[in-house]
Batch of 4 targets.
Target 1
Amino acid sequence: MTRTYEKNLNLLRERFPELHDTLLRHRPEILCQEISTPGGEPTLLCISANTEPCFLHSPDDPAREASSLIEDYEFRGEDITILLGFGLGYLPLAIARRMDPEHRLFVVEARPEILLKACQLIDLSTLFSDDRVHVFGTNQVQLIWDELERDKLKLMAGQVLKLIHPPSRRLFPKAYRNVEDRIERFVCSIKSTFHFVEAIGSITVENIFTNLLALADSAPVDTIFGVAKGHPALVVAAGPSLDKNIRQIKDVEGRFLIIAVDAALKPLMAKGIRPNLVVSVDPNPINLKKFDQIPSRFLNEVPLLFSPDVYHEIPRRFAGTKFVFGEHNPLSRWGVGLARKVAEFPHGFSVSHYAFYLARAVEAEPIIFAGLDLALSGTKDHAQDCAVTWHVDPAGKDLPTVPGVYGDRVTTIGGFINMITLFERQIAFTDARCIDATEGGALIPGTQVMTLKETIDLCGHGGCTDFTELFQKIWSENRLKDRTKLSGRIKAGLTWLMDQADEVRICCEAARPILSSLLDDLECGQQAEATIAEKIRRVNQIADQINNHREFTKLIGDWMREVSVKKYRMGFELERTSDEDRKLCMEVELSHLFIERLTTVVETIKQFGVPVLESL
């Protein structure tokens, strides 16, 4: 073992232990022949069974070739680069030399034997010891997602530059196409979450405040954790394939824990099936349609699991057993905390994710999906009898396709692709076996595809358990008995919050005219420096006053994300700007945006918080 090889492997083991172990265990499947170039730098001639022999790098000057491939690119601090194809390391080394200090580089290599050759032939110590650089195999997509998630701000504020090492792509097109698609799906899902939170800000605030009183009649979800240990759980969604096997669900009542998403409640009721629990999370008012025309007697007998962000009329429809789980947004967490501590689930894109999280938390085995198409079927996008709250024309142009459960390609939409990606990620962390018995729709990686009949034959021989009765008993024992104390805590909390909002609003009202005037001054360029300096001093003084309300501003942070992203991006733009006047203009513009957005959020807090406070 050469000194270079030993040093590279030690660094690889320290930074990327899973990748290091893969390299040492892997059996080569392609022939890599080392060839010296005129400059003394090695290249590889790669020979595989499926492609023509190919030089991995220039046989003349590999380092110069790498530099020329990226000469037109900038690697700015706010951006991330995904490089598909490590090769012998010439290209990632060239990028690392040109990267801004805050830039991030993710390098993905399909073939362990190539990366091992790189460790043997090239000194990669500067690359492997650089915390800005991450190296992965194409089989480590989950780890790539984890690292990308830590850089959410970059994903929103900057660009994700996708570079592909051409010879690597020619040699292993399928492997790189697969990882490229999965990375793109994940980045899209992160961005969709960001925009969704911004879009429903006022609706969510109203729901959080109005649902505070519903907490009194609910038990924490963690009181039912583990209650279905070893029992099969059937998660019923409302996709069009549910029509194929919904009648079979009747056969497993009492044998399976049946968890329905809210949209599936009507189809199940129409077939005389009563789920053991229904889950509802959507904050939009249209979500109430899913419960229209369902008799109150039926709703009172079905336990509900709800999010504190759910449309506030929904918990009111359920007079009986209710459980609540915590959300990750700070204001929701604060509101629930006024009542008691409640377990939180991971983020979900849809109610079906939360139904799955519940099945996992109660320790069901296996977890079975029905009606979870995540794709469009013929002319339908919902099951029969389902309340339609959205519609997509399956024949619409430019709709994406994804792999289907039967090996075909199925038509879907962007939101479903985000859901598939999240299911894949969460199933990878799930001990229970996950069976997709939808009998149609998109393939969810990590699930075993079976028909519902096959699943029932396999898992339906256990004893009977009345989970509905069990949930009712646990709820009765764990819901809050003393509403007066809870009402007092909510009143004290809301009083503090409204007082904070009033004080911050006064600051905003003082800052707005000064900032508007300052922007005019900087635009016309005719005001004296002393006048501008005085206005800046007054704005900074107000900013200090707002900073004294950090606890409040943290609670509303989810609705200030757009400003946070622009602030992050502007930090890098300011570093690249030498014009001091332009820098000042940019900073004032950001302050103006911050105050305007803060004013809007504070007004929303007051609009929906005051009526709840007055009702106590």
Target 2
Amino acid sequence: MKKDKNILILFLLVSLTAQCCLMASADQVQVPSNEFDFYHPGSQPDPSLYDYFQVGKHNCINCHKFDDDNNPVEVVAPYNNWLTSMMAQASRDPVFHAAMTIANQDANDSGTLCIRCHMPTGFLMGRAMPADGSALIEDDYDGVSCDFCHRMVDPVISKDNPIEDIDILTDLVNSGDLPWQPGNASYIVDPVETRRGPLWDVTTNMHSVPILYSPHHEEAALCGSCHDLSNPVLSLQSDGTYLPNAMGLEHPTGNIHEMMPEQRTYSEWLNSVFATPEGYIFEDGRFTDNNGGDVVHSCQDCHMPASDGANCVFWDIPDVGPRENVPMHTFVGSNSWVLGAVRNLYDDFETGLNDESIELNHQRTVEFMQKASDMDISITSDNKVNVRITNMSGHSLPTGYPEGRRIWLNVRFLDGSGEVVLEHGAYDFDTAELITDDTKVYETRVGISQEMSEIVNLPAGESFHLVLNNEVVFDNRIPPMGFTNAAFESIQSAPVGYSYDDGQYWDDTIYDIPECATQIVATLYHQTTSKEYIEFLRDANVTNDTGQIAYDQWVIGGKSAPLVMDNESFIVPVFGDLTGDGIINVTDLLELINNWGECSNPKNCIGDLNNDNVVNVSDLLVLIGGWSNC
């Protein structure tokens, strides 16, 4: 694909003559896109096509929200768990609303693509235009709802799928809307009110609509529809850059891998060991198959872990009963603060949230994130400390659109009295400022190229402008098990400005050991929303107050306080340190004198520093040579 200079010239002419083209800064040029630029295959908006989508709090809540779920330890009831997820609250997320506002400022009508994932029933019912969400109604704030997910249809015809799928997919073929790859909200939903799911043995149907067995609901591809995203306005050029298409038209190929990547969570999984027929078995059982087995394959295995209990309030009826391995609708991820912000901004009746559910979600998030990585500390041959982080998740670590997300190493060297000698990656919890230049920060940084800068009249370089960013500036995220450079290059998720060998799913960071350090304390932190990003959402917004609202909630919620993923302590080995306190002093001298003479047990001879099976003046001289000045 070659750059079309005529398209760029036309783009500039249209931009300069379009109304409302001066946006966030006095001279910024808005991309003159419209809703057609953001078209993607899949179910399309048509209020007359779909049976109305049920709102959970008026329907599903009656049978799937209950406290007695036959499990005294874990909350299993589907609706209880869904309420406390970011799926349920995706439509109310203040960061989403702030980001969508700026997206619309930067590229006209781009918010329609945001709404398509965050408020899918509103999109399907034709209310994603205007793209600022002004046509949405209260029912659309049900987020990624029960009725929406349980009407999703597999885009691939299979004899295992419901027979009803044939007509649905045929209609999409005839209209030219059948998706051929996951991503960009290319989901398909059943126009008819049904309940689709992975249970094949339901004998008692208490719904007023059919229950259809759908193996698709256990496949990662179901999640891929909204967890592989690209910007369809920006096309891949022959030199590897991304530039705007002709406006008012869908992307010329419709291939998300020929658009500017926004996130590749599904594709990262697809190119990991978890997507292979063999899958992966965690020896410590941190993640398991949510059908009760050991082999981990799908997104659902990790993000919908199984627990025994009930999924219906009428579980005491024999034909309904409790079940083994009920996939819990927790959808836990890495977001550690937005749920609290949602509760602050909306009435509890609307969100279904309360103190207990917020605390439960936070507890689950911490536990989940601590399973996602492992840390090991060792000393190198040249007496430096190495901190290794191993990615135990099914995708890059971290994953998703950057949005200020980052993981970093905080390493503190302590002396014998526990005082800090030196700290790397210091974070100020009061100001939310991180010192980044002396440690490892795992992140993706995107930006605006010089050519794009000249089109939109914004500075080239790193940027948070989601729909204008057209280059990946840096990406050192740790890849998953099964990583190859070729595969990740093909999905536009390869490292940039960093390197990993094929098969590598860990990263090492080397630190010098300062004088007087006797102990190392290393902590791996994850932060959902950085200060830099939230301030951008506040300051770049010239349309409304959504940026200020998001910022205020960020402050109220503790400024997205970092979450601890791993924490390890390590005693610095010092030759001649007989007491194991990390320094050589008078206590070591006394220990040596106490063992003076021939060794009674050569295999455990304390003080024999030169290994001649006797503790004498030679060993004393070695000890004095390492005497600590600290």
Target 3
Amino acid sequence: MEIKKIEYGKLSVIDIFNDWYTVPSYQRHYVWEPDNVQELLYDFKDAMKEHPNEEYFLGSYIFQNNKTDGNKDLLDGQQRITTLFLLFSYLRDFGGLDADMQHTLHSLVYQDENKLARKKARVRLQYEIRGDVADFIKEHVVAKGVLDNHENWYRIKENAKSRNENVSINHICSTLVACKNFFAENPEINIVEYLAYILNNVVMIYVSASTLEDAFRLFSVMNDRGLKLANADILKASNLEKIQDREEKAYVARKWESMQEDLGDNFDRFLSYVRTMILKTRQKMNLLDEYEKEIFQKGVIPKGKTFFDLVFRAYEYYCRTIEPEVAEVGYAYVNLIKVIKDTYPSTDWIPTLMFYYSRFKTENLYEFASKMIHKYLADIICGTVLTTRYENLNRMMVAIKNAKTSEEVLKDMYIFQFDHKKFMSILNMDVYGRRCTKTLMMLMELKYHSDEREIGTGIINIEHILPQNPGIGSEWTANFTAEQRNLYTHKIGNLSLLTRKKNLSFSNLGFSEKKLRYFNGKIDTLPRTLKIVNSHEQWLPEDIEYNQKKALEDIREIFEIHDVTSVYDDAKELDYKQKAKLTFGMAYEKWTDEEEAKLIRLFMNKVSIEDIMQELGRNRGGIISRLKRLGFVVE
């Protein structure tokens, strides 16, 4: 019987990128968001500054050796390795490096053809997943100097914004843009030192298997509950050894294990909340190093009983604030936390709320939670970078620590302020597909919800009342021109919530039939949506106008915005052409030769119609009409 070999070891990044990798067709897309990328780049920056001579552990990756082409098929770790691959591509072209350093980075990304050495052109990281990812990388990323090409970089920026692009291509482009933004925000970084740190100090653990079956088995084992809780187990062991009394040690161990069982896979995340409450800073290293180097070694908290007592108190704060009981905090608070937990995946706000409870318990808890969550969501909607969002939440904890009363915290306008004008302006544009839209709409539902019962947050989907793709000859195409559909479809005034899965055949029904067959019985727990649907016999442009205005009024009231209205308040007497110009400044203006040339270039480069609209400031109907006039076939 053949003995199957499983190997493992530790490699620095520069050694990792001496091998060749394939992301197989059965793998998922590259899906890292700009926040993930920026957080990693900031972690590198902070670790280099604070621990320049130590290793930075980036995690593990699993691969199977591919006998066909000699590449290593990545089963786990592709998100981090792809991000590094893109970072090296970006810095090769934008890092201001000399020729030798550019060549070094280029060799980590791509092997140019060398006929004398009998070397074929070869990409360091080959994508086999569906779509044109491999071709896109080869054409737009890996060639030396290609990112610095104005036309190519423009396309990358456009693809980063496009929801119609291939998922991996969209995220590849958004990662490159995130790299550019990071270095623009941190001009003091010495690129050479930064790169040298990443290449030599950052390490990963590799695990290789000789068969695909073994590789998948390894992947499953390394992602089961045991290894996810390794941080917790090590923290428990290193602190238990400081407790001498055997009975007390046994009691603490049982209590820890009970807490660990309750939290399950979220236990490490909970311990990161505790870390943030203690330090009130963004996490810069892995969790164990944060506790060891920033908390225990610096004497912030001693190991042993003191540590366990603090964690057990924090668990009580967590249960009281994040898994609250109506009897203690009331329906308004329970519903608010339920909405934010169930409709938005990030949990960065949780340590701040736990810390507030540690100081003031339930005193003004709902009022603080509302202000904090509104500030948090407004920062996201306004495009505030991740590190600044962390700083804003940590600044709240400092204010809570220094305040003598809960009223003093609530009156601190500095920690809750955001750009009201920018916030309202963004929400007056197309909001469908934006982050936080579902959360925002659920907050509007809460405004109309009874405070005497819990709100339902099970299956919740966003539905367009005026459909996205109405049938030809339908009442929608009869009642709305192409320009009006382009203007209104993705506005918040045309969106509703639905407590059922989407059904495209029902979605395109006429309004009356849609109410009967689609909305009936599926919006009863959504008082705002119920009011909107039941108060209209038909759905016309003026109905969307009215609902848009009411939605913006609700948002201003919820977010306590009294100094800014919206352009809709000044648009009562405008016709649809004038209203289109509120969103698309060049709508219905005469086309210039220069604009036509730019339109042709964008269309030929396969930029989506939506992104062309944003670039040229023109509405959909105008774009499509002009393209047809220029002889192009537009579906």
Target 4
Amino acid sequence: MAEKVEHGRSKLISNYGGIGSVIDTIDCSIIIESFDNWHYPSYFDKELNQYIIIDDRLLNRLKARFPLLKQIVSIPTEDGFEVQPQANIFPKWFYCPRCKRFMHYNDWKNHWQDRNNFNIQCFNPECKGEHLEQVRFVMTCDNGHIQDLPWNFWNNRKPVDETKDSAASDEENSPKIVLKYEKCCEEQQLIYEISNENTDLSGIRIKCKKCGKSESLKGIFNFQQKCSGQKYWLGFQNGSFVKEECDEKTTVKIKSSNSIYYANSLSSLWIPEKQSLELDIDLRTEIDAIINDPDFEPKDLEKFARRNGVDIQLINNYLDNHTDEYVTELLYRKSEYEYFITKQQPEDKKIRFRQIEVKNQLLGFEKLVKIDKLKKTTVQTSFTRNEPIDVDSILVGDTEYVKNYNVKRQSLSKNNFETRVLPAVESYGEGILFILDKKLLNEWESNELIINRANIIKQHGLSSEWKSHQIEAARITPRKILIHTLAHLLIREFEYICGYPMSSLQERLYVDNTMNGFLISAYDGTDGYLGGLSKLCNNIENLNKIIQSALNRAKNCSLDPICYESEGQGIAQLNLAACHSCTLLPETSCEHGNLFLDRKLVIDEEFGYFSTLI
């Protein structure tokens, strides 16, 4: 049975609660089900209007991968009734801490059929309703599937010598585990024993009360088996959970490990010029309903156009608006960057901004864009397990994708990439777009010392085991490391100034040969934000002091000189002088997983961009 989920809306399109992810609740862990099971109305039903998000620029970009996509729909609020995120319990195996009984969820539930509601409690009267504990181990494969370990076979193994590989297979010096894949006895009754003295995995044993066969969990992370192709996030179909054929090997992970789920999400800032504002939500769903009528005739659209005073060509453009053209993240952001630095405040009420020239007032910068109102739409398209992918591989075609990655992108929908809708979160907020001094930046990044230092990070990235690191490292430049690190330092400083915690502030980088800026923004649901961030632009002299304070603070890391002189730290050694004490942010604030950072490029007295300011 699917369970309703009470979870933050933004988390439902993130690494911490997206479709297919495993999250902890008060009672147990659950896996979030496909939005197909959330009971959204049909894409041409008027009842869907309350959920539709209009962002034609984003919609058109998504159609390169989702050719039948018609609507982007909002994640429902927790007080919604008809549409609610659904989930099912996973992992499926539980044990009683008191009597040690260890069974599959369905077996526990069957024992409660003639009693009161099953609330994940032990049925043994002596246990007095003891709450069951869930196993913390799962198995995942590169194709994105997830499954339980074969616990009912765990205590029935082949002898080590039968495996023809008695040598140690990992750093725990444990032998290879090979199961017989049959129960230890006909009347198997498993118990889950945890030693009070031995806290290692060898202190946890799976034992049969009937035959006495017992095995510990020592070496569990060596265990592999053929994947069963389970897709629990798609829910039930024909009486069982959805699955597919898979030839990959599964490996054991802790259920709370970050590596079991990576959400592939894209975000878009609202640009009025890129929207078809003449067609509102009501008109769009009515057009779709006309097209889906079994008795549809082309003249029906003409009648609709005349009745509503809409140009028929506009309707045809809406219906034919399919593109196979793939838009890179860099090109997509360039349109945002150019809009904010070249355009004036539009009539559109969803956005409010103005440019401020600061070249002679704010050293190191040439322009600020004070954004008092900002709309952002974030949509999740798929997910991977075991390894993340880079942002430009999220929408790229399969032929190009498999050249770079072995991990498969799993769809959020039963309809795979032919879905008609995708869930998203629409947020309103505020921000400041910082534009660095182009002339000063060009002179700075031509320094041989700076180029060589950036190449250290590049080489570390190219040597990483993860392909996403290799791809990002191949296009890393001193300019990007500088701007990325500077954004981190300012976010850390703004926490003390503007009323937002670091976790509520986000960076958005605009970096290439023609872009040299970064946006720091804050969002609060759909209609509220504090206003303390954009107001910093009202007093440039004070903002200058805040920036200088951030740079001075960056010179004093509690881990210096170890951090400052580091030749590589963090995942894959992709940071230099940057650690949690001086530079890193909450994961929700950083676009690059707190990687590709080096405060030396910002503040070093010899070659730092701001060396003359501090």
